[in-house]
């Protein structure tokens, strides 16, 4: 199936965004937020504010990653002879 010029441009922009996000280490930022949440002192007066701040940051980063770096899904297929095959599917959205 031939792509239109607009579809080709969109694919190029998506690839560039994926590259940018992976180079900037957005996954590392997400992990850092989770680690900061784990280290919060629940007895601190600023606990609720700090938790809300890190939670919001983590949610936004997760949404950004989900938009440009799709999640992989795995399915197991059983054949006629009883053998199994695991297939990894990539979620693709236009």
Rounded to the nearest angstrom, the distance between the terminal CA atoms is 15 Å
Q: Could you say how many structural domains there are in total? A: 1
Shape: flat
Strand line-up across the major sheet = 1-2
What class, by secondary structure content?
A: alpha+beta
Mean pLDDT across residues: 77
Poorly predicted regions: none
Q: Report the sheet with the most strands, covering strand number, pairing sense and barrel closure.
A: 2 strands, antiparallel
The string of secondary-structure elements, in order, is HHHEE
**Helix count from the secondary structure assignment:** 3
Give the C-alpha Rg: 20 Å
Summarize, please.
Helix content is 60%, strand content 15%.
Give a quick set of tags describing it.
flat, two-stranded antiparallel sheet, 94 residues, 60% helix, 3 helices, 2 strands, alpha+beta
Report on this model:
- The chain has 94 residues and is an alpha+beta fold.
- Helices cover 60% and strands 15% of the residues.
- The protein is built from 3 helices and 2 strands, in the order H-H-H-E-E.
- It has helices spanning 5-24, 26-39, 47-68, and strands at 72-78, 84-90.
- Helix 2 (26-39) packs antiparallel against helix 3.
